[in-house]
C-alpha cells in the first residue's frame, strides 16, 4: 500500500510544481495592474514606483517566485493588497465556511442516496422506481442556480420559514439550532446533484448484487429481501460507492462556489471572485494553488482507496 | 458499431440469401422522431425560435429605459414586468436567449471539433497519445466552475471568456471520447486488414475511425450543449459572464435574485427558458443514447 502511494506521489508533486509556477506567472501576465488599483488614478510616478518596490513587483519574475515559495514553506502567505489583513486569516475564515457547507452537503447526499437506493431495491415497486427515477433526472438536469433560486423563492419569500442567505450570526457551535436553519437551504441545493448521481450509482450496484448466486441461495432459504439488502448486498456494494463519493466531493467543492454566491455564504468562492476582480495577487495565487492542491490530493486519495479495494491495481501497472 | 459488425458476421441462419446483407441498421436519427427525442426537439425548437425571432417579438429594445416603469409587475404592457432601471424584462429575456444560443450552437461545436481533431491525430501515435492524455486528465480533474474562475482570472470577464471556458472544457471531453473510439476501431479486423494492405494512417482515420465514432460523439454533443447552458448561467450569475447591459439568461437570473423581495416575478421567465433548453437537450441526448443501445 505504502509502495503504491510512493509510486503515485512523484507525478502529483510534479503537477503541483508546474501548476504553482504557471499560476504565479500567469497572474502577473494578466492585463491590469494592482499598483494602479492601489495608488488610484492621480498617483505620481514616484508614488507608484514606491508601491511597486514595496510589493516586490520590481524584482525579476523568477526571484519573486522563489521568494513566494520560501514564504509558503514558512506558511507566511503574505498580506492581501486590497482587502487588507493576512491572506492566511482570510483564507482560513473562508475555508471554514466552505468546508462546513460542503461536508453538510456530502452528508445529506450520502444519506439521501443510501435511503433512496435501499428503498428502491427492497420495495422493487414499479411506481416507487418511476418516482425515484423522475426525481433523479430532475435533480441532475436542473442547474444549481435554478434549484437555488426556486428553494429561496419557496422557503424564504413565499413561505418565509428559513433565511434566504448568510451565515448564522452566532457561529456554528453556540446555537446549533439556528446554524442548522441557515445551513439547510444551501446544503440541500448543493447536495441535490451529487445525491442524485450517488443514488443512481448505488441503486445500480445493489441491483447487480441482488442478481448474484448468494442472494438466490439466501432467498431460497427464506430470508427476506430487506434483510438480504441490509446485511449482505449493501456491505458488498458500498466500497465502490466510496470511490464515487470521493469524486463527488471534488464536484461539491466546485459547486460550492456557485451555491455560496446564491445564498451569500461568505466562503472561499466569494473570496476568489473578490480577489480576481481586485487583482489581489497574493490572494489569487494562494486560492488557485489551494484549489489545485485540493484536487490533486482528492485524485490521489481516490486512486489510493481504489487500489486498496482492488489489489490488481496495487500490484499491476503504474495505476494510470 | 460493434452491433452492425455482428449483424454482418452472424446473419440469421434461416435466410441464406441475406448472408451478405450490409444494409445499415436504422440510424439513431429515428429516435428524434418519437417520444423523448421529439419532446426534446420541440422544447429546443421553441426556445431557438423565440431567440431567433427576438427582434420581431420583443416589444422594446433590450436596453431601452421606459419612463415611469420601475419594477412594475407583470401586466398587459409588460408581460414579465420591468427591472430596476425601467427595462422591459420580456424583451431582455428574448434577446438574452440569443447569447445562450451563440454559446450552445457555436462554442460547443468549436470545442468539439478541435477536441475530435486532437483526439484523432494524437491517439494514432503512442508518443503524442501519452502527452494528450496527461493534459486531458489535468483539465478534467478540475470542476468546470473552478476552471472557469481560473481562466477568468487570466483573461478577464466577458462573453469571450465564456466562449473560451466552454472550448477549454469541451476539448478534452471530446478528445478523450474520440481516443476511446480510435482504440476500439483500430483493433477491428477490417482496419487491421486495411493496414496490412498498406492503407495510410490518414486514410484509415477518415474512412473507418471517424464514421464509426460519430454516434457516441453525437450523444456527447447534446450533453455538452446542456452543460454549456449551465456554464453560461453559472458564469453570468457569478459576474464572470456577459457584461451589462448585454442580457443573457444567466445574468437575468442573477438580476432576479438581486430584486427577489421587491419583484419575485423577475426571474420566472428566464428560469423557465433555461429549464426548457437544458431539459430539451438532455431529453435528446437520452433518446440518442437509448437508440444506440438498442
From TrEMBL, chain A:
Keyword flag Transmembrane helix: yes
ABC transmembrane type-1 domain boundaries: 95-302
Compartments in which it is found: Cell membrane
Membrane topology recorded in Swiss-Prot or TrEMBL: Multi-pass membrane protein
Alphabetical keyword list: Cell membrane, Membrane, Transmembrane, Transmembrane helix, Transport
Record field: transmembrane: 12-30, 99-123, 135-162, 182-202, 237-263, 283-305
The keyword Kinase appears for this protein: no
Annotated PANTHER family: DIPEPTIDE TRANSPORT SYSTEM PERMEASE PROTEIN DPPB-RELATED (PTHR43163:SF6)
Family of the protein in this entry: Belongs to the binding-protein-dependent transport system permease family.
Name listed for the protein in its UniProt record: ABC transporter permease
Source organism of the structure: Nocardioides mangrovi
From TrEMBL, chain B:
InterPro entries: BP-dependent_transpt_permease (IPR050366), MetI-like (IPR000515), MetI-like_sf (IPR035906), OppC_N (IPR025966)
Stretch list, region Disordered: 1-21
Bilayer-crossing regions: 38-58, 101-123, 135-155, 161-178, 217-243, 263-284
Compartment(s) where it occurs, according to its Swiss-Prot or TrEMBL record: Cell membrane
The entry's keywords: Cell membrane, Membrane, Transmembrane, Transmembrane helix, Transport
Domain ABC transmembrane type-1: from-to ranges: 97-283
Signal peptide: none
Pfam families membership: BPD_transp_1 (PF00528), OppC_N (PF12911)
UniProt topology in membrane: Multi-pass membrane protein
Keyword Acyltransferase annotated: no
Predominant location: membrane
Family: Belongs to the binding-protein-dependent transport system permease family.
Protein name: ABC transporter permease
Species this protein is from: Nocardioides mangrovi
Amino acid at each position: 500500500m505504502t509502495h503504491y502511494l510512493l509510486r503515485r506521489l512523484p507525478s502529483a508533486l510534479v503537477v503541483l510544481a508546474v501548476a504553482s509556477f504557471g499560476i504565479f506567472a500567469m497572474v502577473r501576465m494578466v492585463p491590469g495592474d494592482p499598483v494602479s488599483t492601489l495608488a488610484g488614478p492621480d498617483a505620481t510616478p514616484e508614488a507608484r514606483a514606491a508601491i511597486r518596490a514595496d510589493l516586490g513587483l520590481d524584482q525579476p519574475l523568477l526571484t519573486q517566485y522563489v521568494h513566494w515559495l520560501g514564504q509558503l514553506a514558512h506558511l507566511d502567505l503574505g498580506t492581501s493588497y486590497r482587502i487588507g489583513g493576512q491572506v492566511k486569516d482570510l483564507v482560513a475564515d473562508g475555508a471554514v465556511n466552505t468546508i462546513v457547507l460542503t461536508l453538510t452537503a456530502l452528508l445529506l447526499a450520502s444519506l439521501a442516496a443510501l435511503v433512496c437506493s435501499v428503498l428502491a431495491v427492497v420495495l422493487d415497486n414499479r411506481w416507487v422506481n418511476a418516482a425515484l427515477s423522475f426525481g433523479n433526472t430532475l435533480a441532475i438536469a436542473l442547474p444549481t442556480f435554478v434549484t437555488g433560486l426556486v428553494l429561496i423563492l419557496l422557503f424564504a419569500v413565499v413561505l418565509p420559514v428559513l433565511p434566504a442567505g448568510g451565515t448564522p450570526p452566532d457561529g456554528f457551535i453556540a446555537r446549533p439550532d439556528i446554524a442548522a436553519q441557515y445551513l439547510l437551504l444551501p446544503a440541500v441545493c448543493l447536495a441535490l446533484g451529487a445525491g442524485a448521481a450517488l443514488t443512481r450509482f448505488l441503486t445500480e450496484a445493489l441491483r447487480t448484487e441482488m442478481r448474484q448466486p448468494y442472494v438466490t441461495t439466501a432467498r431460497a432459504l427464506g430470508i427476506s429481501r430487506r434483510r438480504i439488502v441490509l446485511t449482505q448486498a449493501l456491505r458488498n456494494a458500498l466500497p465502490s460507492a466510496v470511490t464515487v463519493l470521493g469524486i463527488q466531493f471534488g464536484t461539491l467543492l466546485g459547486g460550492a462556489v456557485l451555491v455560496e454566491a446564491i445564498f451569500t455564504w461568505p466562503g472561499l468562492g466569494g473570496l476568489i471572485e473578490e480577489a480576481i476582480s481586485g487583482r489581489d495577487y497574493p490572494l489569487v495565487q494562494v486560492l488557485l494553488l489551494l484549489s489545485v492542491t485540493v484536487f490533486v490530493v482528492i485524485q490521489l486519495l481516490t486512486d489510493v482507496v481504489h487500489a486498496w479495494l482492488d489489489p490488481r491495481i496495487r500490484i499491476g501497472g503504474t495505476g494510470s | 458499431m460493434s452491433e452492425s459488425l455482428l449483424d454482418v458476421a452472424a446473419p440469421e441462419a434461416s435466410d441464406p440469401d441475406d448472408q451478405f446483407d450490409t444494409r445499415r441498421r436504422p440510424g439513431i436519427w429515428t429516435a428524434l422522431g418519437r417520444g423523448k427525442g421529439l419532446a426534446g426537439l420541440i422544447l429546443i425548437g421553441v426556445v431557438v425560435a423565440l431567440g431567433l425571432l427576438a427582434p420581431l417579438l420583443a416589444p422594446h429594445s433590450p436596453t431601452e429605459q421606459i419612463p415611469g416603469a420601475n419594477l412594475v409587475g407583470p401586466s398587459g404592457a409588460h408581460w414579465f414586468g420591468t427591472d430596476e432601471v425601467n427595462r422591459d424584462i420580456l424583451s431582455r429575456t428574448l434577446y438574452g436567449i440569443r447569447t445562450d444560443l451563440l454559446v450552445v450552437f457555436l462554442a460547443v461545436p468549436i470545442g468539439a471539433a478541435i477536441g475530435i481533431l486532437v483526439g484523432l491525430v494524437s491517439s494514432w501515435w503512442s508518443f503524442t497519445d501519452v502527452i494528450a492524455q496527461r493534459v486531458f486528465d489535468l483539465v478534467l480533474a478540475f470542476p468546470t466552475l473552478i476552471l472557469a474562475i481560473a481562466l477568468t482570472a487570466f483573461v478577464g470577464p466577458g462573453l469571450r471568456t465564456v466562449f473560451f471556458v466552454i472550448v477549454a472544457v469541451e476539448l478534452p471531453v471530446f478528445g478523450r471520447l474520440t481516443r476511446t473510439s480510435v482504440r476500439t476501431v483500430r483493433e477491428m479486423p477490417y482496419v487491421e486488414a486495411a493496414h496490412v494492405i498498406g492503407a495510410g494512417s490518414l486514410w484509415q482515420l477518415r474512412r473507418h475511425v471517424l464514421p464509426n465514432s460519430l454516434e457516441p460523439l453525437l450523444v456527447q454533443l447534446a450533453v455538452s450543449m446542456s452543460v454549456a447552458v449551465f456554464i453560461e448561467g453559472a458564469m453570468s450569475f457569478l459576474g464572470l459572464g456577459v457584461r451589462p447591459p448585454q442580457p443573457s439568461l444567466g445574468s437575468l437570473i442573477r438580476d432576479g435574485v438581486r430584486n427577489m423581495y421587491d419583484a419575485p416575478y423577475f426571474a420566472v421567465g428566464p428560469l423557465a427558458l433555461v429549464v426548457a433548453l437544458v431539459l430539451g437537450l438532455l431529453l435528446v441526448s437520452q433518446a440518442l443514447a437509448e437508440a444506440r443501445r438498442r
